[in-house]
Amino acid sequence: MGNSVVRAARTWCALLCVFAFVAPAMARMQLVKPGEMPVLAPDEGMVLMAVDTSQTLERVTLNKDGQVFGAGVMTQIQPGRSYRLYVAPVGDYAWKKITVASNASVWFGFNLEDSEEFRFRVEPGRITYPGDLLFRPTGVWRADTGMVNRALAAMDWLQAQHPGLQQVPFAYSGHYPDPFPAFYRQVQATHNVPASEPVLAAPPAPGKLPVAADVLLRPGRLRAAYLNPRGDLLAMETWEGKDKWQIELIDLLDSTRTVLATSVTPFDDVRWSGSDALLFSARVVGGHLERVLRTTRDAGGKRRWSVIQLPSGGTVLDVLDDQPDLVLYVSFDSHGDPLVRYLPIGSQALVDADRPRMRDRLNVGLTDDVNWMADGRGQLRLATVKRDDDYVLMHRRGGEYSEVMRFADMQDFEPVALSYEGEEIYAITDKDRGQRDLVAYDIASRKITRTLFSKPGVDVKAPIFGPRREVVGVRYYRDGHLLSEYFGAGDARLAESLRAAMPDRNVVVVDRSRDGQQAVVWVDAGDQPGQLYHLDVQKHTMALLAEDRLWLEKVPLAPTRLVSYRSRDGLPLQAFLTLPAGQGKRPLVVMPHGGPIGVADSLAFDAETQFLASLGYAVLRVNFRGSEGYGRAFREAGKAGFGTLIEDDIDLAINKVLAEQPVDGQRMCVVGGSYGGYSSLVMAMRWPERFRCVGSIAGVSDRILLYTASDSGRTAKLRAELERYLGDPRTEAAQMQDTSPLYHYERIKTPVLLAHGLEDRRVDYEHMRRMQRLLVAGGNTPVGMTFEKAGHGFDEDDEIRLWTGVAGFLQAHLEAAPAKPASGAP
Q1: Which of 369, 386, 379 is nearest to 423 (CA)?
Q2: With contact defined as beta carbons under 8 Å apart, do 164 and 35 qualify?
Q3: What pLDDT, on a 0 to 100 scale, did the predictor assign at position 243?
Q4: How much of the chain is in helix, strand and coil states, percent to nearest 5?
Q5: Is the Cβ–Cβ distance between 764 and 147 less than 8 Å?
Q6: DSSP conformation class of 241
Q7: In angstroms, rounded to a whole number, what is the distance separating the alpha carbons of residues 58 and 79?
Q8: Is 97 helix (H, G, I), strand (E, B) or coil?
C-alpha cells in the first residue's frame, strides 16, 4: 500500500512538473472580468462567447485548434442569453462541446468540433464575436444547434459590462462580413443612441372594430378530406379550437356523422386502406400513436366501428392498393436501425400476434436508409439513404439497389410520386425549361423520357392522379384562380361544367372514388371562405357537406378583382385589389407578399385581407416579378430586383389602381410580412412622402444579416442556395447595403410599426432590434410588438394580438385629414 502511494505521488509530481514547463508556451484563454481593461500582446485578441439556450446547460467550451488546456468555458448557463469575454491568442478556434445536465447525476453532451459551422478565427487587437451559439433541445438526445449573428445584442452587453472597451475594434467572424458594427459605432458617435435596447411602445388601441379580429382571423375548421375508394364514406380532419383536432366521418349514403378520433395536436397522417379501414396517427408524448378504425354493419344494418392499436415505436409507411388488410410498416430495432415489413391490420389479434423478424425485413441491402417508397403492388422500390452530408435516392430492381440521383442535384427537380410499376418517377422540373413542367423520369436510363404537361409561362402546382397512380391531369394557377386541367375528355368536361356552375370561384376536386362517380369538391373565392361539397357525377347533384368558416356566414365580405398591367421593362404583371363597399375613395393598404421568389398571392380567401377590408380599407396585393406561377423567366427576373425592380412593380400597381379605382392616394399605408416587411420599409425609404405609415412584420431590415442570422444560411449547401437566389455579400456588399433600410434609416420619416417573434429562425429578431435602435437614434421612434414564443409565423392568439395592433396603428394614421402633405405618386 505504501509503495502504491509513493508511486502515485511521483506520477502526479512528474505531470505537474511537465505542465509547469509546457504551460507558458500553451495557448491560454484568460477571462476578462467586468470593468477590466486588458493589455493585449501583439499576438493576442479578445473573443466574446455568447450562448442562447432554452435549457439550463452544465458547460459550454471552445478552444484553439490543437490545444487541450486553456479553453474558454461557460458553466451553469441559465436559459436566455449569456456572455463571457476572454483574452485569446491569435489563431483558429472551434466551439467544442455543449454539456447538458439532465438531472443531478447524469450528464450528456453534444460534440461540435467536427462541424465547420462552429469554427472561427481570432485576429490580433480586436474583439472577435463568432455569433451566438444557439441551443434548442428537440428531443431527449437531439437538439437544434447553430450560430446566429446578433452583434447588436453582443455590443450592448459589452457596453454595459466593459464600457472602457468601446474603442477596441469589434468584428463578427462568421462566413460573411457584417458591416453593421462599424456603421453602428459611427452612428453612436454622431447621434443620441440608447445605451441598451429601448422599450417598444405598443401601437394605439383600435377604436370599435366592425368585425372583431378573433372572428375574422380565427383559423378555418376544415384541414383535409379523404374519400374511401368505394365512395360512400368521407373522413374529414377538422380543427375545433385550441388543442382540439378531430376526425369526423360522414356516411354519404345516409348523411350520418360520427366523431371517430380527437387529438390535442394535428393528425400526422390519415388514409384509407381499402374502403372499410381508416388509418391515422397523432403525436403524443414520447412518440406517435398509430390507430386503425375498421367499420362493419351489424345484422340490423347499423354501422359499427372497432379500434385497432398498431405497435408503438413505428409508423405506417404505405397502404397496398389490392391488399387492404396489409400495410407497409416501419419500426426500429434495439440499435435504432429501421425494419420495413408487412403488417396485417385485419384485427387486433393479428396485430398482437405479429412479431418483427429480421428475416422479414424488406429494406435488405440498405444502410443509413431514412425513407422508402413502394410501387402499386406494395413492393419496396425507392429508398432515401444518408451519405456524408447529402442524401441519395436508391432504386431496387431484382433485389439490388442502385443509385438514382443525389439530393444535391435536385435543385430544379422535385420528385412527387412513383409510378404504379415502380419504373418511373413523376416529377416537376424547370431545368432547361421555360416553366415548371410535369415529367416522367425513367429510372433505368436515368433521364426524363416524357413531358406529361407543359404550358408556356405556367408553373405546374401539382399532378392529379387516378386510381392506379396514373397521372390524369394537373393543377396550376392562372389569373389568380387555381385550375384543374384533365387529360381525359370525360374528366375535362366535368371540370368545365363545375367551373361554369360556379364562375369566379376556385373549384378543386379534392378526392374521387375508384370508379370516378363520387367526388369531394372544394370551392372558395376572395369573398367566400372554403366550402366542401359532395358531387354525385351519375346523378348530377352537389350537396354541401361542410363550411370552413361557418361563423362568417353573416359577415359582409369584400370582393377581390384582378388587376393586369405591365412593368416598365415590359413584363406582364398581375395584382389583386379587394375593395370594400362604401361611398367615396377608400384608404389603401398595400400588402407585399413574402418570399419573394416562388411565393404568390391569388384570388383565394385570405382572412388578413378581409380583416383590413372590414375596417373600410382597400387592400392591394401584387404578384411582382419573382412570384410563383408565371414561369422560370418571371421568377428569375426577381432575383436581381430586391429593393429596386420589385418595388417598382408594386409602385406601378399603386398608380394603376389610383387612376382607375375609388382609392385615396392621400391615405395610403404599406404593411407586409417577411420579404413584404422588407419591401414596406424599402418603399418608405424610397418614397418617404408617399405613405402615411409602414408596418414590417418579421421583416428583413439588413440584407447581409439574412445570411448570418437565418436558418437559410445554416449550412454550406443552404448558403450556396441563398447566394444563387439573393447574391453573394462578399462581392455585392455595397449594393446590398444600398438596398437595406437599416443603412438608410434617416430617410424613413413615416411612422413605423415593427412586429417580430423572438424565436424566429428564418428572419432573426436581430433584424428588428437593429431597425428599432436606428429609428430611435434618427428621431422616428417606432411602435410595435414582440411575441415571446413565436417563430416566423404566429399562432391564433398571436395573430389576433398582431392584427388588432395593426388595426389601431392604421386607424391612427389613415384618418381623413393627413398629418402632413402626401404625394399620390413617387
Answers
A1: 379
A2: yes
A3: 85
A4: 25, 40, 40
A5: no
A6: S
A7: 11
A8: strand
Q: Say how many Å lie between the first and final Cα of the chain, rounded.
A: 92
DSSP 468: T
Question: Whole-angstrom Cα distance, residue 437 to residue 431?
Answer: 9
What would you measure as the largest C-alpha separation in the chain, in angstroms? 103
Average pLDDT for 149-161: 96
CA gap 826, 824 in Å, rounded? 7
For 449, what's the count of Cα atoms within 13 Å in the CB-facing half-sphere?
9
Strands 506-512 and 369-374: unpaired
Q: Which residue has the cell 366521418?
A: 249
Go through the chain and tell me how many residues it has.
Answer: 826
CA distance 619 to 615: 11
Produce one character per residue of 266-295: b if its CB has 16 or more CB atoms within 10 Å, e if not.
ebeebebbbbbbbbbbbeeeeebbbbbbbb
Give the three cell numbers for residue 808.
Answer: 389601431
The rounded distance, in Å, linking the Cα atoms of 712 and 368 is 25
132, 157 contact by CB (below 8 A): no
Pairing of strands 663-673, 693-697: parallel
Tens digit of each residue's pLDDT (9 = 90 or more) over 347-399: 999 999 988 888 888 988 888 888 999 998 889 999 999 988 788 999 998 88
Percent of the chain with pLDDT over 70: 94
Residue 600 C-alpha cell reads as 404568390
Sole residue written with cell 364562375: 503
Residue 748's alpha-carbon distances to 685, 742, 775, in angstroms, are 5, 10, 8
Per DSSP, helices labelled H in 137-236 are 151-161, 180-190, 213-216
Q: Is 509 helix (H, G, I), strand (E, B) or coil?
A: strand
Cα distances (Å, whole numbers) of residue 473 to 234, 486, 510: 23, 4, 13
CA–CA separation, 696 and 673 (whole Å): 6
C-alpha cell at 86: 476572454
What three-state secondary structure class fits 90?
Answer: coil
Task: Give the whole-angstrom CA distance, residue 366 versus residue 271.
Answer: 27
Give the residue among 526, 543, 529, 531 at the shortest CA–CA distance from 579. 526
- Determine contact, residues 404/418, Cβ cutoff 8 Å: no
Query: What is the spatial distance between Cα 458 and Cα 601, in angstroms, rounded to a whole number?
Result: 15
Classify 747 as helix, strand or coil.
helix
Cell 375528355, located at residue? 489
